[in-house]
Write a structure and sequence with these properties.
alpha/beta, nucleotidyltransferase, 22% helix, 7-stranded mixed beta sheet, 6-stranded mixed beta sheet, 2 domains, carbohydrate metabolism, Spore Coat Polysaccharide Biosynthesis Protein SpsA, Chain A, UDP N-Acetylglucosamine Acyltransferase, domain 1, 422 residues
Length: 422
């Protein structure tokens, strides 16, 4: 094993692994927020994109050969990866490469998660990995994949599935599994209507994280079998994993906090409410997800911007922010920001109040606005005097209001609501 400068161990297993990040999904539950971008390209955490978390996990784990499979409206995702992830050394065999859907086999686009990997089989063969790590590109978490790879080899597994405990009422959105005392998976159902609780619990289920480690030869063989199987949806959770449990060693790897051994942080920010909540959690004193952890940095493309600035100190016109995160390039001019998160180059003009809200990059809030419990998309220009988040019925006429009352605003909604302003 090799010891990295951070004190973590980087093994030969990680160097012999190819990571495949599935990043082609739209994320339809985010509604208009993904009209022009794929879900992995959605902004998160004040300066990042969701895709930065699995990519950073790979790099920090010592996995430096990474293929990102894209499909749905991938321009902003492609641009972000090209600008922010080109620092790996190609001459050392390290890379983050983009693999867009190209109808490489037949005339169809990616028809499922397994089909997406199948269509790039020739590229995977060229890289000649011993193990293939398959990741979802749209979850937020920090995880050392090296420990999962080590467990995979130690247990002589053919396939290892990363899993985490989730509340039973949420489990129908995931693949749910049962395991024996050796962590071997005995049952796997993809998004069951009536999920079963895990042993020893009445309100928790064991859910797939969409993380799979395959022995390469097993992956190749089973992808070929799946392509020839009539009626298959060509999906890892629906087809590949359930079909292999009797004939192969399919093991579970419970994801735990490496320090406490308790439940680890993992978020599927696939709805407006969950995305809003997860962003605002970061403004807490000690949030579960520590973005200030120098031992496990989250890498990203960083726009060159000046520091955030707060101007005016007059009574009734004082620029300040409390219990908030304010990114570089922001200007809070004689306005109040409470328990909110502002991405780069946001401007909030005088006499406005922002509370419990997330403002994506380059949002401009005019004077005398009041905004509460809102998620404002990139580039929105909020007209002076606008009130958002105080009257649900009025908000529904102009914007999208979530089931928990979070108001999502996009530039297109503003254009329609205020046609004479822009």
């Amino acid at each position: 094993m090799l010891t990295s400068t951070s004190g973590r161990f980087v093994s030969r297993l990680t160097r012999e692994t190819l990571a495949i990040v599935l990043a082609g999904g739209r994320g339809s539950r985010l509604h208009e927020l993904t009209n022009w971008r794929a879900k992995p390209a959605v902004h998160y955490g004040g300066k990042f994109r969701i895709i930065d978390f699995p990519l950073s996990n790979c790099v920090n784990s010592g996995i430096r050969r990474i293929s990102v499979l894209t499909q749905y409206k991938s321009h902003s995702l492609d641009r972000h990866i090209q600008r922010g992830w080109g620092f790996l050394g190609g001459e050392l065999g390290e890379f983050v490469e983009l693999l867009p859907a190209q109808q490489r086999m037949g005339e169809s686009w990616y028809a499922g998660t397994a089909d997406a990997v199948w269509q790039n089989l020739d590229i995977i063969r060229r890289h000649n990995p011993a193990y293939v790590l398959i990741l979802a590109g749209d979850h937020v978490y920090k995880m050392d994949y090296g420990t999962m790879l080590a467990a995979h080899v130690e247990r002589e597994a053919d396939i290892t599935v990363g899993c985490i405990e989730v509340p039973l009422e949420q489990a129908s959105a995931f693949g749910v599994m049962n395991i024996d005392t050796d962590n071997r998976i005995t049952k796997f159902q993809e998004k069951p209507r009536n999920p079963e609780p895990m042993p020893g619990s009445d309100d928790q289920a064991l859910a797939s994280m969409g993380i799979y480690v395959f022995n390469t030869e097993v992956l190749f063989r089973e992808l070929l079998n799946d392509q020839n199987l009539p009626g298959s949806s060509h999906d890892f959770g629906k087809d590949i994993i359930p079909s292999l449990m009797k004939s192969h060693r399919v093991m579970a790897f419970p994801f735990r906090d490496p320090i406490t051994g308790g439940k680890a942080y993992w978020r599927d920010v696939g709805t407006i409410d969950s995305l809003w909540e997860a962003n605002l959690e970061l403004t807490g004193i000690t949030p579960e997800l520590d973005l200030y952890d120098s031992e496990w940095p989250i890498w990203t493309y960083q726009e060159q911007v000046p520091p955030a600035k707060f101007v005016f100190d007059d009574e009734g016109r004082r620029g300040n922010a409390v219990d908030s995160m304010i990114a570089g390039g922001c200007i809070v001019s004689g306005a109040q920001v409470h328990h909110s998160l502002l991405f780069p180059r946001v401007r909030v003009h005088s006499y406005s109040e922002i509370t419990d809200s997330v403002l994506f990059p380059r949002v401009d809030v005019g004077r005398n606005c009041r905004i509460r419990r809102a998620l404002i998309d990139r580039g929105c220009q909020i007209p002076p005097g606008t009130v958002i988040g105080f009257d649900p019925e009025e908000d529904k006429k102009r914007f999208h209001v979530s089931s928990k009352g979070v108001v999502m605003v996009t530039p297109e909604m503003l254009d329609e609501a205020y046609p004479h302003v822009f």
